[in-house]
Amino acid sequence: MYRIDFNKLRFLICDDNPHMRRILRTLLHSFGAREVYEAEDGATALEMYSHYVPDIVITDWAMPIFDGLELAQMIRQPESKGNPYAPIIMLTGHSEKRRVTVARDAGVTEFLAKPISAKGLYQRILNVVANPRPFIKTKTYFGPDRRRNINNAYIGPERRVGGEVEVMQQPSLLDKARSNA
Amino acid sequence: MAKEKPGTLQIKSFADHHVITQPNPLRKVLLRVPESDLDDPVGRAEKALAELSGEFKNWMTIEADRLSAAHAAVLKGGFTTENREELFRAAHDIKGDAATFGFPSAAAAAESLCRIIEHAPDLEQVPEELITHHINAVQAIVRERTKLDTAVMASKLSKQLRGVADEFLVKANRDRPEHLEAILAPSIVPAE
To answer: Has this prediction a pTM greater than 0.80?
Structure first.
């Protein structure tokens, strides 16, 4: 059995609603987290993201001016100086399936529909910590692999084209981002 | 295949995509513990949330008043972009927060209002009383919560509102299949 050592994790939460931020902070502190940074809009969150280099981002979707979806898209810039790989948990009141797809296509790692529960949040965090997915980079997408499972029953066209495999090694961007912060 | 070095990204390049794998940077926070481990972070968090619940009624009142203020701005200035967005955000926040605060029926009424704002082809053409009933319902559910039988009544009220709102939206969107599909699609959140 595995447990998360929360006091080694650095969180950034972004929600324009102060009550929801308080709930999130309470939950994370109760899990054992000590480093929880808060932003009330996407622009501030992006600045804090570069400055604090959090391990996990938890963001609301609907916020004025610069929303959670844009925040995810800004973080998932493969050429950025910061860490484009941090897990992003989208916590939102949107509860329609098409929203999940839109969030997924923006590079969100996990989607958690409100109302929030301690169990739901813990499970999402456990999932991003214990089961990170590889990242996929295409002309139009950069983010966690959107295929969580291999579906043997799938009969549609294969959208990814294979071909020659070339393997390259690069230094970890997280280490690079941390050293620049 | 090259052997993976610690702290390095491995990039496999294919014809039209790259697969990037890195050693799990959060691996260090995963602790293996025996099955008998008594630590219960979820239970601890639920307890902390319960301790915070004394503030929920007050928070909910603030949220409901914000919604009423946004509605008052609409009544005064019409559905300008700013007024529309604030009304939507206020309703959307209640939709997301109210169940956590112990007001699931307020969340349901607010969700119904969000659907109207999101899917009505022209908000100026939405019957004024349909929106007003949603605002009044949220206020009533929040302020009358301590009275007996209000939970059942609140649930009934929000369901009726949703029924009327959906009927309006289905008619108004009969020529807009993408909206119709979204209106009729089931929610990913289990019903109360």
So the answer is: yes
